[in-house]
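ingest -> validate -> predict -> emit
validate: passed (alphabet ok, no gaps, 261 aa)
predict: started
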Amino acid sequence: MKTNNTKKRLRNGEVVLGCSMQQFGSPEIPRIYAAAGFHFCFIDCEHGSFGLETVRDLVRSCLDREITPIVRVGELLYSLVARVLDAGAQGIIYPRVESRQLLEDAVSWTKFPPAGVRGYGLSAPQFDYAPLSFAEAIQQSNASTLVVVQFETATAMERREELLSVPGIDVAMVGPADLSVSLGVPGEFEHPRLVETVTAFMESCARHGVFPGIQVRNVALARKWLERGMRFVGCGSEHGLLLLKATETMAELSAAVEKQK
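emit:
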């Protein structure tokens, strides 16, 4: 089984950086992310429209290039979690978490007994066809799976101490878009109300031994949150990066044409 390098880096005190995928289901994108040096690929099955077979192909592409495949499921539902883990995902992102009981259940789905209640459905492809025993497969899977919980509402932030105390959480990730809406400052990502809420949240993460994370839309915002101490930072998306670079390239080409007039 491939090492979960993102989990390893976090535990070694490093910052990890990634980028999301929402629109284009090409396995070439994780390869590009890996070539660029990203640590993880955030495969979005909440707002993205990927089917399970596409997710499987994206996950395998990630594993081939040793970039960590982390899948955001559409909701906290055992069947969604179990199937993407069985497809080889090395991490799960849980969206819109507000209930401690549901979170406890959801975390248990990511681990085999006795640590959790995940059903055994692993087969040779998940382990590069290595001849592992059940015990070895269970130990490796339990150790390598990264559990990421999203805090996206004012309610979740109010309940953060209770939610962060759930055992088995590796990363608590802010969803600033939904959080800004919930706080009454939609899209104002540097509004004092949002910044103060997230800063207090990061302090709670430290008390509970959970790595703080955030997914942002551009490098400027990522830089600010890195400076504030975020450890797990996703920046942008495949379609956003393509549009950004295409726009920059066209602007430079148009300027060159103008110079010839």
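The chain has a mean pLDDT of 95.
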